[in-house]
C-alpha cells in the first residue's frame, strides 16, 4: 500500500468521511507531512475499497450521490500494523505520519512506536556521519572544487536536519514515555 493509503486509513479511523472530506482533511493537517493530489487520494480510496479495508457507510441517492466511507475491521488492522511496522521510505512522510496519528493508538503502545522511529532516524544519522567521515580530508581536483563544495553543503544540510529530528524525537520519546507511565 502507498503512504497515502495509510493516511486515509488514519483519517477514517478518526471519523467517517466523504472523498471531499478526505481531501479537506489532507489540506487541513495531513498535508503538513504528506502532500497528495485529489487523484491520488481517489485512486487510493478506490483500492482500499476494493480490498475491503474501507466500506461505503452511507450514500445519497443518485448516480453522483455523495458517499461516506468508514473503516472495516481489516482497515483498522492494516492501520495498526502499519503504525507498529518499520518506517520505510521518506521519514518526513511516513515517520511524521505515524506521529500525527499516534493519539489513535493506546498509550501503552506508543513508546515502542516512537522507539522504532528513533531507531530509524539514528540509522539515518549514522549513515550520513559515515559519508561525512569518508569524504573528509579527501583531495578534490580543482576542476571539481565548486561541485564538491556544494555537494558537501547538501550533506551538511542533511546532517543538520537529521540531527535536529533525532534531538526532537529523543525529547518527544521521553515526554511520551513519562506520560505513559503517569496515566
**Which strand-content bin applies to the residues?**
5-15%
Strand order of the largest sheet: 1-2
Largest sheet: 2 strands, antiparallel
The share of residues in helices is 55-70%
Report on the structure:
- This protein is mostly helical and 183 residues long.
- The chain has helices at residues 3-14, 19-28, 38-50, 73-84, 91-100, 110-135, 145-182; strands spanning 54-59, 67-71.
- Strands 1-2 form a two-stranded antiparallel sheet.
- The longest helix has 38 residues, at 145-182.
- The model has no long low-confidence stretch (mean pLDDT 89).
Layout of helices and strands, plus pairs?
Elements: H1 3-14, H2 19-28, H3 38-50, E1 54-59, E2 67-71, H4 73-84, H5 91-100, H6 110-135, H7 145-182
Antiparallel strand pairs: 1-2
Descriptive terms for the model:
183 residues; mainly alpha; two-stranded antiparallel ribbon; 2 strands
What's the short story on this structure?
This protein has helices spanning 3-14, 19-28, 38-50, 73-84, 91-100, 110-135, 145-182; strands at residues 54-59, 67-71. With 183 residues, the protein is mainly alpha-helical. Helix 1 crosses helix 4, helix 5 (91-100) packs antiparallel against helix 6 and helix 6 (110-135) runs antiparallel to helix 7 (145-182).
Amino acid at each position: 500500500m502507498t503512504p497515502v493509503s495509510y493516511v486515509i486509513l488514519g483519517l477514517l479511523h478518526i471519523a467517517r468521511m466523504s472523498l471531499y472530506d478526505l481531501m479537506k482533511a489532507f489540506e487541513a493537517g495531513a498535508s503538513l507531512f504528506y502532500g497528495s493530489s485529489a487523484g491520488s487520494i481517489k485512486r487510493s480510496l478506490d483500492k482500499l475499497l476494493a480490498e475491503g479495508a474501507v466500506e461505503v457507510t452511507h450514500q445519497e441517492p443518485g448516480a453522483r450521490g455523495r458517499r461516506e466511507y468508514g473503516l472495516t475491521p481489516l482497515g483498522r488492522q492494516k492501520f495498526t500494523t502499519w503504525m507498529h511496522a518499520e518506517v520505510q521510505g521518506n521519514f518526513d512522510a511516513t515517520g511524521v505520519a505515524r506521529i500525527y496519528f499516534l493519539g489513535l493508538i493506546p498509550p501503552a503502545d506508543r513508546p515502542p512506536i516512537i522507539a522504532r522511529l528513533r531507531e530509524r532516524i539514528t540509522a539515518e544519522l549514522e549513515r550520513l556521519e559515515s559519508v561525512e567521515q569518508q569524504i573528509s580530508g579527501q583531495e578534490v581536483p580543482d576542476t571539481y572544487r565548486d561541485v564538491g563544495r556544494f555537494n558537501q553543503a547538501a550533506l551538511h544540510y542533511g546532517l543538520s536536519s537529521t540531527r535536529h529530528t533525532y534531538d526532537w524525537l529523543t525529547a518527544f520519546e521521553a515526554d511520551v514515555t513519562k506520560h505513559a507511565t503517569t496515566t
